[in-house]
Amino acid sequence: IQSAGTIWIGQGSDVATNVKGGTVNIEAADGFDLRGSVRAGVQYDIGGATADNVDLVATAASGGVNIDVRGQLLLGGAEQAVGNGSVGGLIIASDWVDINVEGGVAHQKAFDMNAKSGILTKAKAGSGESSSINIWADRHINIDGVLKSHDSGSDVSVNSESGVVLVGVGGHVVADDRLI
């Protein structure tokens, strides 16, 4: 998905690929607002899942999500149907998630994730892969949701050029191998 403006994926919407090595690429020139889900090689099993223990089923090996945004990335926000609640956004992959955000308004957060949102990776069983999550931004990063790489040897990296990464009260950042 590529846009010279803002990309908005609404509540209940799903952008997905389920083939081996499948990649979802999103390039937004003026912001990205995700209140639905983006999936590469992974199904989200809601039976028995909790906020801290999400059941993921990798359906295809080496699935990746690449997101490049100029402006601001919002993961989750106000519920559109009612307006007085909030919904989360979800990004899940069987291998990697790479997010780069730059070029927005200096006083705005580059990346803002609400408490109902998640970025999760889990390699396909028997693939021998370890999954990873990498987030880079030129301004502040706010994490109130869950960043979790489920595999043995998995990594999570969060880097802000401004030097400010905020993990809120409800935020969880989990990696088996390295947390950078």
Radius of gyration: 15 Å
Low-confidence stretches: 48-52
Instruction: Give me the number of helical elements.
Output: 0
Q: First CA to last CA: what distance?
A: 29 Å
Q: Could you give a short account of the major beta sheet?
A: 7 strands, parallel
> Multimeric state of these chains?
single chain
Helix/strand class: mainly beta
Percent of residues in helical segments?
Answer: under 10%
Q: Order of SSEs, N→C?
A: EEEEEEEEEEEEEEEEEEEEEEE
The largest sheet has its strands arranged as 1-4-9-14-17-20-23
Arithmetic mean pLDDT = 85
How would you describe the shape? globular
Strand content: over 45%
* Total number of beta strands: 23
Tag the structure with descriptive keywords.
single chain, 180 residues, mainly beta, 6-stranded parallel beta sheet, 23 strands, globular
Question: What's a quick, concise take on this entry?
Answer:
With 180 residues, the chain is an all-beta fold. It contains no helices and 23 strands.
Can you characterise this structure?
- With 180 residues, the protein is mainly beta.
- The protein contains no helices and 23 strands.
- It has strands spanning 2-3, 7-9, 14-17, 23-28, 32-34, 37-40, 42-45, 55-58, 64-70, 73-75, 77-78, 86-87, 90-93, 96-102, 111-113, 118-121, 132-137, 141-143, 146-149, 155-160, 165-167, 172-174, 178-179.
- The radius of gyration is 15 Å and the shape is globular.
- It starts with a strand and ends with a strand.
- The relative contact order is 0.16.
